[in-house]
Hints:
By secondary structure, this protein is an alpha/beta fold. The chain folds into 2 domains: about 5-280, Metallo-beta-lactamase, Chain A, CATH 3.60.15; about 285-435, no CATH class. Helix content is about 25%, strand content about 25%. Helix 7 crosses helix 8.
Amino acid sequence: MDLGFETIGNATLICHDGGPVLATDPWLVGDAYFGSWGLGHEVPAEQWANVKACKYLWISHGHPDHLSLATLEQLRGKVILLPDHVGGRIRRDLEGLGFSTRVLPDGIWVELAPRLKVCCLADYNQDAILLVDLGGRLLVDANDASDRGVGEFLQRTIARYRQSWLLCLTGYGDADMIHFFDEAGARVLPDAAMKVALGPGIAGLLQHYGIKGFIPFSSMHRYQRTDSIWANEFTTEIDEHRRDFPQGQGMEILPAFVRLDLARDALTELHPRVLPDVVHPPEQFGDSWADPLSAEDAAKLRAYFSPIEHLRTFLGAITFRVGGRDTTIDIAPRDHRRSITFELPRASLLAAIGFEVFDDLLIGNFMKTTLVGDWHARNAAGLYPDFTPFVGKYADNGHAKSAAQLAAYFGEYRRRGLMAAGPTPLSQAAFGRAARYA
């Protein structure tokens, strides 16, 4: 293909200009989230070869279904393009492993080939959007990102293009923590159980930004651990993106796996083989639910959580139920109106705090979570906006843990102008918490 693009895998966009040039977020082999996630479809040999032929890779953020080290090991020698995330963690980590990286400045178009240029927009949640101008047509690769102050920039940019497509995560909501229990030990049914039709919401996104085409993206996974396969009931089938999508309004949903030859205006649906369902015991990934924490482990947990000052503004304690024993980490000892109990295996817990990837435990959905006391919700909404972003995004990835570090962190994003336009309603609460420090 001389000029065009393909989509494959979980969130991989392959852009061609005289041949393959750029591939995004290549998770093409291996597992994610401590073995909890596997790919739902095989990556065909042709698309694998095209990724291998690319000079550039782009990684949006650090979640392992987007930054797959098992895949990158097979793609050494590429230039890995990165968003300009405050803290620079991904760049340091990848360069420490011997990869070649290049940080893309926010809001600046960078030419990668004669008819291919990109513009990257990093956000304060340590995710990013990539705009791809491919022969005068626009791709908006939003992967898992939301509009966090860049909406006006996007609308102005999109308005300049006759043809554009949006690629982003949509679905019932399993790509977050949904493994909740109440204080009596009963499972809290996730919002994903309602399986609300996705079509109207997708149409709303397209209308809001002035985009005509949508490609299902960033949600092509399945659960495969014996302690997480329960969540497969709440994953989103590809065809569900079309349900109740309004017809006849000049908008369209393309297949999830597609080749679009822009030189010939020819669309070909790809049909990657659906991978067979497999189930693995957690022990295969180094986890045993029987292993308890030691006193040394408890000290590591305290050392991990105590520097995150924001937790003290709302949380009394965190209890870890590991190997059938409870270990409680005091956060604000005088205020136990609100606490969290996490039940999970020792190995993945220690790996998560050791590598500072606590978000991976939440998204893996084998860890059981109970919100104890005075919470506004008993599901994932309860962990927002005060726990998940401040631990998994700002502290782990942004290395902003104290109030002073958070002020510098958000101050940098304000200086760039990414927060100036204000957030969408979806991110309003988190934006409000961030404003304390900005």
